[in-house]
Amino acid sequence: MDAIETKINAYLTRFFPGVTLGLDDDIFSLGFVNSMFALQLVTFLEHGFEIEIENEDLELDNFRSIGAMRRFVERKRSDAG
Question: Ranges for the Carrier domain (predicted)?
């Protein structure tokens, strides 16, 4: 895992103790995410990686897995830079 993936994984495992997530495990289809946690996840990504998440970014595919979130964070940083 790279630094972004490690940080996301550490955040998720705080809420899912004892669960080992793979980079492409879909946390939505696994039932780990409800609407409240999805909002927390968006807030974590914004603050944790200093990115701004716009309404058009709020697609499940950006948040389904650790790998998807890493790619999303990298894309947002690239767009901002």
Answer: 19-69
Q: Tell me how long the chain is.
A: 81
Q: Does residue 17 come out as left (phi exceeding 0), alpha (psi in the -120 to 50 range) or beta?
A: beta
pLDDT level of residue 1 (50, 70, 90 thresholds): confident
- Determine the straight-line distance between the first and last CA of the chain, rounded to whole angstroms: 23
The per-type count for the chain, helices as H runs and strands as E runs, is 3, 0
Residue where the block lists tokens 């979130």: 69
- Closest C-alpha among 35, 39, 8, 37 to residue 22: 8
Residue with tokens 């807030």: 43
Find out whether 8 and 62 touch, Cβ atoms under 8 Å: no
- Please give the Cα distance from 14 to 72 (Å, whole number): 21
Instruction: Report whether 43 contacts 35 (CB < 8 A).
Output: no
Query: What's the rounded Cα separation, in Å, for the pair 76 and 78?
Result: 5
